[in-house]
């Protein structure tokens, strides 16, 4: 029964780790390139040039018009869309909207995300190589890459969330949201982190299973060798016993 369980575990764990790593890469890239980490509404002051209202068939310009607009942002863009018909969504570079003091942290968050994706790709290649080799070292490297990429992405997302919170909740002119919440990109990013940790556990389990199989095979070989030595000794001792009799 132990042998059957070990063979089953050896067959399932590498495939599960590979699928989880592939899912992690897809989710991480999706969360990284999309701009729905934060969503919400903000109130802005309408300008004389931008907004007009029709009253009795004539256009009257209003300079102190409060307008609610929706926004969503991510690593790359900050998009705003007004609730007036005909007004298109406007997207700007998010880094250009940040104060200079927050730019190094934001660049560090981007570098951490890029580094985690590279580590995930290395781990994926190691898992692909482990399918062609019976050595457990590939699974160990894949597990190490998965854990490291998870920690790096965790730090990068924490930095990014700190930058988001400081700018969303600040009293500056860049952002004045009435209400905001985390969007689906945020959820996908942390789902990718969960899949990454599960992939590292599966890779580590595959490493332990293969290592246990190798050690068990060595013990069987040693036991078989000892049995052969004992048999040879018994065969060698039989003539002397007969001679004494």
From TrEMBL:
Spans through the membrane: 106-129, 141-164, 184-210
Main location class: membrane
UniProt topology in membrane: Multi-pass membrane protein
Superkingdom of source: Eukaryota
Pfam families the record matches: PMP22_Claudin
Gene Ontology cellular-component terms listed: membrane
Database matches in InterPro entries: PMP-22/EMP/MP20-like (IPR050579), PMP22/EMP/MP20/Claudin (IPR004031)
Subcellular location(s) per record: Membrane
Alphabetic keyword roster: Membrane, Transmembrane, Transmembrane helix
PANTHER family assigned: EPITHELIAL MEMBRANE PROTEIN-RELATED, GERM CELL-SPECIFIC GENE 1-LIKE PROTEIN
Record-given protein name: Claudin
């Amino acid at each position: 029964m132990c042998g059957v369980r070990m063979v089953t575990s050896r067959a399932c764990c590498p495939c599960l780790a590979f699928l989880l790593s592939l899912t992690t890469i897809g989710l991480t890239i999706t969360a990284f390139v999309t701009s729905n980490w934060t969503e919400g509404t903000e109130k802005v002051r309408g300008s004389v040039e931008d907004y007009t209202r029709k009253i009795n068939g004539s256009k009257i310009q209003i300079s102190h018009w409060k307008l609610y607009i929706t926004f969503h942002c991510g690593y790359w863009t900050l998009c705003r869309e007004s609730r007036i018909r005909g007004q298109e969504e406007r997207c700007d570079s998010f880094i250009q909207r940040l104060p200079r003091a927050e730019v190094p942290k934001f660049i560090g968050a981007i570098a951490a995300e890029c580094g985690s994706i590279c580590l995930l790709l290395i781990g994926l290649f190691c898992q692909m190589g482990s399918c062609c080799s019976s050595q457990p070292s590939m699974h160990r490297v894949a597990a190490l890459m998965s854990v490291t990429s998870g920690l790096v992405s965790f730090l990068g997302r924490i930095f990014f969330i700190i930058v988001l919170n400081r700018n969303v909740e600040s009293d500056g002119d860049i952002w004045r949201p009435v209400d905001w919440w985390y969007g689906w990109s945020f959820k996908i990013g942390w789902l990718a982190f969960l899949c990454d940790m599960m992939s590292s556990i599966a890779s580590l389990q595959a490493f332990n299973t293969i290592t246990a199989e190798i050690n068990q095979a060595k013990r069987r070989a040693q036991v078989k060798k000892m049995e052969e030595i004992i048999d040879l000794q018994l065969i060698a001792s039989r003539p002397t016993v007969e001679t004494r009799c």
